[in-house]
Structure formats: structure tokens, C-alpha cells
Amino acid sequence: MRAAIRTGLLGTTVSFTKDQPYPLPDTAELKPNELLIKVKSAAINPVDYKLPRFIGGKGVGFDVSGIVERVCPTDDKSDFHVGDSVFGRVGIGLSSGALADYAIVSIDKIAKKPEWLSFDEAASIGVAYLTGIHAFKLGNVKEGSSVLVIGASGGCGLAGIQLAVAMKARVVGICSGKNFEFVRARSGIEQAENNNLELVDYTDEKAMSQFKINSVGKFDCIYDTATGSGHGENYVSSMAKLLKDKTGEYVQINGGISTLMRYLTGTMQSQRKFFFTSDEDNQTDLAEIVRQLKSTGVKPYVDVKPFDGQSVAEGLEQLKGRRTKGKIAFKMD
Fold it and tell me: What is the chain's percent helix, strand, coil content, to nearest 5?
């Protein structure tokens, strides 16, 4: 079957193959809580090219949507059946990732796809929206909270904007001025009861300087999707002072070795959280994300590409450039 796989000595090179073994031979049985799906669409994230093979496994990609092809014959408690349309995540460390014709998924990491989402849109929810919903839990975001989203036009950033608006927070987004219309049009603000979204242009030094002066101690949660993303961005030192004293939370989702070590050793600074994509059960969170998106009528923004070697390479290069708007997904057929 077709698949994107990690190759090379360190397993950090992503290659496309048409000869990847089928993940479940005809004579083999699925384990309880597993499903085999025929992949309809798969989306990519920066973590896909950052993880080496010994952590991420041979298969590439987490975000997936598809149709249930086989179920475990001994699992009579599952709500999933052959022919169901589903979406969610492939687990970490498997031989076949989301970028393949077929994938094995755990039932606690997927949900049934609502009809109002296409397979490409549903595949794009995974990492970006789950990261956002978990970050806002860490940031104690609720109705009326003041939320700053840094990197508002990217995959995780736009997801954060949409979720925060749906949660009826007071939202400020930082992105390039040329992307203001893009973010505002897809934010859900027109349908939200709390019509409150401000955008700040990070390329306008005067506007950024004035924003920082006017916003000291203002935010309950700062959701930073840009710092440590690979191009030298670092907003932490200049933005942390915008948190409310003692109660505000700075949630960062990228970082270098020093940030990772502080996170692993429990020595992160006060009011600062680091969140790396989680492999925990996601079914409840996926249902909550769908509910929030439906409440404002928004969907993921997706750049859809065909699933072939050239497109996979181009898509990963786009991500590395850190100027992708929304998500990139590959249509399997």
C-alpha cells in the first residue's frame, strides 16, 4: 500500500513508498479496542517531521479520517461498526501512521465523523484542536476569560482562535497583518454571542509596542503556538508580563532542549506551562471540539493535496517554512 515512512540512519527522513506492508494481514486479528480503517484523508503537523523513528515509529502522521474496514471480533462493547465514518488520531510509535492507505487506530482516540464535516476537514482536527482544548484546560479558560493566541493564522493558532471564540472568551490574536482577514473570516466571531476579537500585527513594531504597553496584566491565558517553532521566535520574555498577576497562565506548545528539560524535571517557571501533544484518550475531547465548532459554524481551514510522493514532500516543506495558513491534508482518493 502507499505510505509515508521514516527512513535513514536516525529515522528523521520522510519517504514515500507504494510497497508498505498492509498493517493487518488477512489471517491476523485486531486487538480489543482496535479498528482497521481505510484512510480517506490524513493531515500533517510539525511534530511529524520533528520526531525520530525511535519515538514516532516508522509510520508518519497522527491526524486521520476514514471508514472502518474491520473491527475486533471479540470486542462486543464497541460502538463502532464496519462502514462507520470516523476521525481522530493514530497512536504514537506504530509501524503505519495516518499517511497510509490503511491504518490501525484505538477506539479511545477516534470519534464518529459528523456529516457536516468533510473527511479532509475532520482529518485536520486531531493534533491542532486537541492541543488547543488541552492548553485551554491548563490555562483555566472559560466564558469571559481573556485569551491571547500567538501565531493566530497557523494550524494550532487558528484552532485556538476558533475554540476560544466558541468558549465565549475575549480573544486577541497575533499574526501578520496580511492574514487578518483570513483569521477573522474563519474565527466564528460573526456567529458568536460574544463578538470580541482583536488582531495585532507582529510585523508592525509600533503596533506591537503599544499593544504590550496597554496589555500588562490583562490576560488569563496566553496560548503561544510560535515560540520555539524552529525559526528563532521567542515571545515568552516579552509577553509573560501581559498575564494577570498570580492567576494568569502562559501555555507554550513548542520549545528547545532547555524548555523540554525544565518541563520533564518539573522546574518550569511559575504561571508557565509546556504542553506537548498528548497520546492519552481523546474521544471525549474530540466530541467537545466538534460541539464547540458547530456552535459557531466554523470548520478547519485545509489546504488539500493529493497523496503522492511529490505532494508529501511539498507539504512538509510548507510546514517547515512556518508560513502555512491553517492545515495541510492529503486526500487518499
Answer: 30, 25, 45
Phi, psi of 320 (to 5 degrees): -65, -30
Query: Which strand (E) or helix (H) includes residue 120?
Result: helix 119-123
Mean pLDDT split into 10-residue runs, the chain, 333 residues:
92 93 84 94 92 87 96 84 96 80 94 97 96 92 96 95 96 97 93 79 96 96 85 79 92 64 51 53 90 96 97 94 89 95
Q: How far is CA 11 from CA 15, 46, 56, 87, 123, in A?
A: 10, 15, 9, 27, 25
Here the cell at position 27 is 489471517
Beta strands 85-89 and 110-112 are antiparallel
Residue 44, CA distances (Å) to 5, 142, 155, 312 in order:
13, 29, 10, 9
Grid coordinates representing 284?
471525549
Rounded Cα distance between 152 and 143, Å, is 20
Q: Could you give the CA distance from residue 100 to residue 86 in angstroms, rounded to a whole number?
A: 15
State the Cα–Cα distance between residues 311 and 321, nearest whole angstrom.
Answer: 15
Q: Which of 137, 142, 62, 56 is nearest to 105 (CA)?
A: 62
